[in-house]
Write a structure and sequence with these properties.
The complex is a heterodimer of chains A (151) and B (855).
Chain A (H helix, E strand, L loop, with lengths): L5 E4 L3 H13 L6 E4 L2 H9 L15 E4 L8 H10 L8 E5 L4 H9 L4 E4 L4 H18 L7 H4 L1
Parallel strand pairs in A: 1-2, 1-3, 3-4, 4-5
Helix pairs in contact in A: 1-5, 2-3
Chain B lengths: L1 H73 L1 H11 L4 H14 L6 E7 L5 E4 L8 H13 L3 E2 L3 E3 L3 E13 L4 E11 L2 H8 L10 E8 L2 E4 L14 E3 L6 H6 L5 E5 L5 E8 L6 E7 H94 L3 E6 L4 E4 L1 H7 L3 H4 L15 H13 L4 E9 L5 E12 L5 E10 L1 H18 L4 E5 L5 E4 L1 H7 L3 H4 L14 H12 L4 E8 L5 E12 L5 E10 L1 H52 L6 H32 L4 E5 H14 L5 E6 L4 E5 H18 L5 E11 L2 E8 L31 H11 L4 E5 L5 E6 L6
Parallel strand pairs in B: 24-26
Antiparallel strand pairs in B: 1-2, 1-6, 3-5, 4-5, 5-6, 7-8, 7-12, 8-9, 10-11, 11-12, 13-14, 13-17, 15-16, 16-17, 18-19, 18-22, 20-21, 21-22, 23-25, 26-27, 27-29, 28-29
Helix pairs in contact in B: 1-7, 2-3, 15-16, 16-19, 17-18, 18-19
The chains are: A alpha/beta (151), B alpha+beta (855).
């Protein structure tokens, strides 16, 4: 696994494809790991369920998280990632359709690193993905490896 | 005096004794007579009864023998034997049979001899040849033979000493016809065997009693039975008929019943003499008089002894009583004398004391009289009532200090002057006063009270009450009138005030209840009865517990009592019950009423029926809840819209883009154009959704009012608008210093929309002129946004503020048609109004007001 894996948490097939397309269009070639519901995302992050036994030293560089998700919604996934010392420094960007105030407030309260509302216009969306990738994958210094792993 | 009383008591005692003695003697005597009569009567009856019994027995005895004799004379078989024997037939057979039969007659023990005499007078069979038939026997045999009847002899003696009684029974073959004479059967009875020993015996043991048989024999009486007191006397003792005392003689002389006389011994006896029917015999039953009277004599003796003893005892008792009385009288006399001396001593002492008291009293009365006079005049002078007195000539003789105070005239100005000179009667009340004077002088009433008005010296009118009393002289003519006058001006004023207050309470639209310290209702104004439905009778004297519905908590009542008992006012609400059971709400203020010392005497409850308000509140609460629910639903809907409705639009746009990019070469120009249309429509839909969400957010977001600087807000917005690079020219005028209370972000949205519209619709003007200001229109602070843009025809403006309402073509002026709807919503949420004035090609002005409570 590439060290700079992007974890895309998204249940809408069109959105998955279009997001991948946008990433590709903007030449972001990081490996993209897609999970389609909140439970699967958590299983992946904590090496449980069908991801038990995966190499836990490999953590995604960036998590793109939708809010409306089956089983466990995105805000709850965020809360658990932040609550666990192994994952609490993970860079999580909310990528969702809504800019409802309640979602924005809840996201930032839970310590999200960014909140991007997917525009209807694909070109605008693609632009947003470009800047996102540029910033978080290139410009930004990633947080140190988790304490748990350092030990 | 005491001496004579002793004598008298002695006399009384002696009299009592004599009377007692007399009574006892009389009693004894009467008892004796009574008992004697009883005993005598008993004996008489006894004698009579025995006599009758004996006679009956004798008659029966004789009848028995007669019956036996008759049965012998009827015995046919024997008669056949005799007949055959006489005819000499079968001698050997008949003779023994006859003999046996004659002997069988001796089976009766009374018979001592039985014989059969043949018709010739020859003794054929004789059971006792040693004691042959006597002369008398042969005489009755002859009598029976010739008379053809059964003959009984009397009792007689024969052979000098033997006593017997014979029976001769003639036998005839034909008894009916007395024919065929067969002879005579002879029987001898020994009277000793049954008659003397059995019949003539007394049935009960009495010593001197005796039963005798006797008969008359010539001029004497012959005793036939064996006498108790004379041996061998039977048929021997004779007594001459001349002896008239003899019982038997008395009977023979015709006396009957129980007789008193002498017996054969010459001793006094009592007895009964009775003739035995069918015989010459008399039965005598007798008892010695002595024996009869013995118990009577004994009784007399006893009675005498007892009477004597009783008299003796009473004598003794009376003696002791007399003696004791003498002693008591002596003591009483001594005590009496002592008491007499004591009494006189005490009387003397008392007299002495009384004399002293009288003297002291008289002195005190003098002092009191003097004091009383002083006090009276003091009271006159200091009486809280004015004292005014005038005499028959209406000349004032008393004018107290209070009179000076009330009326203003000094005593020096009034005394000795006619009262009429003062002109103190209020002109309208002269009638009242005249009437009072008439009543007074009529003499029918001692006190006449009148209420009228008076003038004071200064001419002020005062309300007064006059208590007038009249004093008449001996002739009944008025001597003087004294009046106590009370100035009640203040009181009347207070009363009138009180009346006003009480009417205010009575007519109050709120319930007013006054209770005592225990909560017992003493007063309730009419409103209380109106609301609760109880009558005064039902409510007064009860406690307000009557209203309890159980809806108000016990803690509330506890808190209420604690508050008011500590002297504080309590305010709260009750959910109470009416008489008809309906529940109602009351807002109550309960406070203690205190007396001058600050002690709580009553509680006052002022209550308002707030049932309607409560209902309204409840309705509002319900409505609010409904609204909140609706809001939540709306929010959930909006949330869902914002997420889910935009996603497909994104896909449409995204995949259209993908098509344009990936299949660029395969698409002709028209195809590419269509795809652009798809994309732009998708995006417009995205904007529509965003605007709709904004509108809905305006409705559902809570308003947070702050002081908003509208001037600077408008400046920021216009800067933002014009920032987009453009070659348009603007004239923007924003009035300085516009502030209002409102929601910052909402007012931002509203102003942005309005200014954005102005910006948009002025795009064709050479110089776009946009103004934002305020002025007072119809007394209201009104804001306006004015442009010189395209304007519109007002006749189509009806639905201008509805969602999706547009006045222009999309191609001319793009927009969603939601902006003004949002503005109106925001203004309404600020309790304001918005309206528009516009003319085609002459610009548009939007006016709006904002209700600012701080202004």
């Amino acid at each position: 696994m590439n060290a700079k894996t992007i974890l895309l948490v998204e249940d809408n097939q069109s959105d998955i494809e279009l997001t991948k397309r946008a990433l590709k269009r903007e030449h972001i070639l990081n490996e993209i790991m897609v999970v389609e519901d909140g439970q699967e995302a958590l299983d992946y992050m904590f090496g449980k369920g069908k991801y038990s036994g995966r190499d836990m030293s490999q953590m995604p560089t960036l998590i793109l998280l939708d809010i409306k998700l089956p089983i466990i919604d995105g805000l709850e996934v965020l809360r658990r990632i932040r609550a666990n010392p192994r994952t609490h420094r993970q860079i999580v960007i909310i990528l969702t359709s809504s800019k409802e105030e309640q979602d924005l407030v809840a996201g930032y309260e839970l310590g999200v690193n960014g909140y991007i509302r997917k525009p209807v216009d694909f070109i605008q969306f693609s632009e947003a993905i470009k800047y996102l990738g540029l910033f978080w994958l290139v410009v930004n210094e990633a947080p140190p490896m988790n304490d748990f792993i350092a030990e | 005096m005491k001496q004579s009383s002793t004598k008298r008591s002695t006399n009384i005692l002696v009299s009592i004794f004599l009377i007692l003695t007399l009574l006892l003697s009389l009693g004894g005597n009467l008892l004796y007579r009574y008992q004697k009569k009883n005993i005598t009567l008993d004996k008489y009856n006894e004698l009579l009864a025995i006599s009758k019994l004996k006679v009956d027995q004798l008659v029966k005895w004789r009848k028995d023998h007669m019956d036996e004799a008759r049965s012998i004379s009827k015995s046919h078989a024997i008669k056949v034997h005799i007949n055959e024997y006489i005819l000499g037939i079968d001698h050997n057979k008949n003779y023994p049979a006859l003999k046996e039969w004659i002997y069988s007659l001796l089976d009766n023990p009374e018979y001592t001899l039985a014989s059969l005499i043949d018709p010739d007078g020859k003794n054929i069979i004789d059971t006792n040849p040693a004691d042959p038939i006597s002369e008398e026997g042969y005489r009755i045999i002859k009598e029976a033979t010739s008379g053809k009847e059964i003959i009984f002899s009397d009792i007689f003696r024969y052979n000098h000493n033997k006593i017997c009684m014979d029976i001769a029974i003639p036998l005839f073959l034909d008894l009916e016809q007395k024919k065929g004479f067969l002879g005579v059967v002879f029987l001898r009875i020994d009277p000793d065997i049954f008659l003397y020993s059995n019949i003539l015996q007394w049935p009960i043991p009495v010593k001197s009693s005796e039963v005798l048989i006797a008969r008359r024999d010539g001029d004497s009486v012959l005793y036939l039975s064996e006498l108790q007191h004379k041996e061998n006397s039977a048929v021997q003792l004779r007594k001459p008929l001349s002896n008239k005392n003899l019982l038997i003689v008395q009977a023979l002389n015709g006396k009957t019943g129980v007789l008193e006389g002498i017996d054969y011994r010459g001793i006094k006896v009592m007895g009964d003499v009775f003739p035995v029917p069918g015989s010459p015999w008399y039965v005598i039953t007798k008892v010695d008089s002595d024996e009869i009277f013995n118990p009577i004599i004994a009784l007399a003796t006893w009675l005498f002894i007892i009477t004597f003893l009783l008299i003796l005892i009473s004598a003794l008792i009376i003696y002791f009583v007399w003696k004791r009385q003498n002693e008591e009288i002596r003591i009483i006399r001594q005590q009496y004398l002592q008491e007499l001396v004591d009494e006189q001593t005490i009387d003397l002492k008392e007299l002495n004391l009384q004399l002293q008291n009288d003297i002291a009293e008289r002195k005190q009365v003098e002092v009191q009289l003097r004091e009383s006079e002083q006090r009276l005049s003091f009271h006159f002078e200091n009486s809280p009532l004015a004292v005014v007195e005038w005499d028959a000539g209406y000349i004032v003789s008393q004018w107290s200090k209070e009179a000076e105070h009330i009326f203003g005239w000094k005593a020096t100005e009034t005394l000795g002057k006619p009262i009429a000179d003062l002109n103190m009667i209020y002109i309208d009340d002269i009638q009242i006063v005249n009437l009072t004077m008439e009543r007074l002088s009529s003499g029918k009433e001692d006190v006449v009270v009148s209420s009228n008005r008076n003038y004071t010296k200064t001419g002020e009118v005062i309300e007064t009450i006059w208590y007038n009393t009249i004093l008449n002289d001996e002739t009944g003519k008025m001597a003087s009138v004294m009046s106590l006058v009370e100035d009640v001006t203040e009181r009347k004023k207070t009363e009138s005030e009180l009346r006003k207050l009480s009417q205010a309470v009575e007519q109050s639209p709120v319930s007013i209840v006054i209770t005592d310290l225990d909560g017992v209702i003493e007063y309730g104004n009419p409103r209380v009865f109106d609301i609760t439905g109880y009558t005064a009778v039902e409510l007064l004297g009860k406690k307000p517990d009557l209203f309890k519905s159980g809806e108000t908590s016990r803690e509330s009542y506890k808190e209420l009592w604690e508050t008011i008992l500590s002297g504080k006012e309590w305010q709260g609400e009750f959910h109470n019950k009416k008489k008809n059971g309906d529940l109602y709400w009351e807002a109550a203020t309960i406070s203690p009423i205190m007396d001058a010392e600050g002690k709580i005497t009553h509680f006052l409850a002022i209550k308002e029926d707030i049932t309607r308000r409560k209902k309204d509140e409840q309705r509002v609460n319900e409505r609010t809840l409904q609204l909140q629910t609706a809001n939540k639903e709306l929010e959930a809907f909006a949330y869902s819209v914002s997420h889910d409705l935009r996603a497909p639009l994104r896909s449409i746009d995204g995949w259209s883009m993908a098509l344009l990019e990936d299949c660029y070469d395969q698409l002709d120009k028209q195809g590419k154009e269509y795809l652009d249309r798809v994309r732009s429509e998708s995006q417009r839909m995205g904007f529509l959704i965003d605007d709709l969400l904004k509108l809905s957010r305006v409705s559902r977001t809570e308003i947070k009012k702050v002081n908003v600087d509208l001037t600077s807000l408008a400046k920021d917005i216009t800067k933002r608008l014009i920032k987009t690079p453009t070659d348009r020219r603007f004239e923007i005028i924003i009035q300085p210093g516009m502030f209002t209370m409102g929601d910052q972000s909402m007012l931002d949205i509203a102003l942005t929309n309005l200014l954005d519209n102005a910006y948009k619709f002025t795009s064709r003007q050479q110089i776009a002129r946009i103004e934002f200001g305020q002025s007072v229109i119809a007394d209201k602070q009104t804001y306006w946004v004015k442009d010189n843009g395209v304007g519109f025809d007002m006749s189509y403006s009806k639905n201008l503020f509805g969602a999706f309402q547009r006045m222009h073509k999309q191609s001319d002026f793009p927009g969603t048609g939601i902006g003004l709807a949002t503005v109106q919503r925001i203004i309404h949420r600020h309790d304001g109004e918005i309206w528009v004035e516009s003319k085609k090609d002459q610009g548009t002005t939007f006016y709006f007001t904002i209700t600012d409570e701080t202004r």
